[in-house]
Amino acid sequence: MKRNVELVVISDVHLGTYGCKAKELLRYLNSIQPKILVLNGDIIDIWQFKKSYFPKPHLKVIKKILSFATKNTDVYYITGNHDEMFRKFTDFELGKLKVCNKICLNINDKKAWIFHGDVFDASVQHSKWIAKLGGKGYDLLIVINNIVNWFLEKMGKEKYSFSKKIKNNVKKAVKYIGDFELTASELAIDNHYDYVVCGHIHQPQIREVVNKKGSCIYLNSGDWIENLSALEYHDNEWKIFYYEDHKHLLKDDNTDEIPDINSNDLLKIVTNFTK
């Protein structure tokens, strides 16, 4: 049985990169039936895009998203920095799929402000070559980490995350994450939003931020590289879904009527969009 969910937010999938956990994401998407699906940036990694590497699971994720959009799910594709090429298609609509830079949703009489979050990143805004170089370095780190974790699993030991270790122990990284969350929250409070929902920093989070002007709930959907996480809103409650905590309950389900699109044709469409 699929779970009915009012709103699902995923971000930082990075389709087209070696670190993307497309198979796991597909299992999650096959387990839910959301009324609204928000793709909050960096879904297709155009920075790292190579026609020579876009395996079937990555294409299946795109097909699944299109399947949602052809049925009863409103799908919003919010652009991020790794898929910034799509910003020239802002306000493009195809059925229930809409491309945008940010959205504001009314959720049970409360306002949710949803955007990727790269607008706060100075390296992205002013020195894109540095940001892209950093992106390649992160990709390499993930590939090495995956190899190490493969050996750890074979030895019966727990997986280890190089990236999380760096983020949690390097003062600048910790400060950057804290500044990011605070900046987004303060802007939301200034503009009278009840929720502010971001991606970008690959750090799942739900927390209340309070200042002299008021309060809001800051949320981050995490990523599908390391955390394998999503935000879900249902029955007046926000939750972070972690794939690792629920994977034993998920089953491979290919019974959906996915649009009949040839994988090669779909890849051509993606390639044309990234030119």
UniProtKB/TrEMBL annotation:
InterPro entries: Calcineurin-like_PHP, LpxH-like, Metallo-depent_PP-like
Domain Calcineurin-like phosphoesterase per the UniProt entry, residue ranges: 7-204
Highest taxon listed in the record's lineage: Bacteria
Gene Ontology biological process terms, A to Z: lipid A biosynthetic process
GO CC annotations on file: membrane
Repressor listed as a keyword: no
Pfam family, one: Metallophos
GO MF term set: metal ion binding; UDP-2,3-diacylglucosamine hydrolase activity
Keywords: Cell inner membrane, Cell membrane, Manganese, Membrane, Metal-binding
Name the record gives this protein: UDP-2,3-diacylglucosamine diphosphatase
